[in-house]
Give the backbone structure.
Amino acid sequence: MDDRLTRFEKLRQIVAQCRACSLHTSRPHFVFGEGSLQARVMFIGEAPGKDEQRTGRPFVGRSGKLLRQMIAAIEIPETDYFIANIIKDRPPNNRPPEKEEIETCVKFLKKQIEIIEPKILVFLGKTAVKGLCPNLAHLSVEILRQQSKNLGMVSYMDIPVVVTYHPSALLRTPYRKVGAAEDFRFLESAYREMAK
Ligand code: SF4
């Protein structure tokens, strides 16, 4: 655990110094991610928004509140999950990150996954797919949601992935909450199975 913490904090320092793309101009705060370093579940979003940039914490605005409620509803304890984004700095006006920004930044998230060694990844929307499984980015979130319910059919470095909507998409289009609830029920059963 100490080794994990040391590697993690070294990585945080590297990100703090990063000027590899123009998004660093949105600082003072980048958003590294938060949660347990022993987490078995990692939730992967897109990029920080205004509230996240202000606080330096992931998913603290309205969509974050919704995400945390959904996680609590399936009883994954805080000690067993980690939340991060593909991109560490806020894109201007919350625009979607560009391909080059994703390709430049995703190495930090990959390193975080390598350190934490989760057993399940949850992709919150298409940007997570673009960052970690770019070979699947031509498929719709709807198709990937269904495919990922055959656990292991969608994976990153042999870690099974559950694909669902980004919580901000649920706020914009509430009818998708039905599908998201189904995805989280599936996640719950996969989590329980893993915990046996
Ligand atoms: S968004 Fe990522 S790659 Fe770009 S400056 Fe920030 S940490 Fe570096």
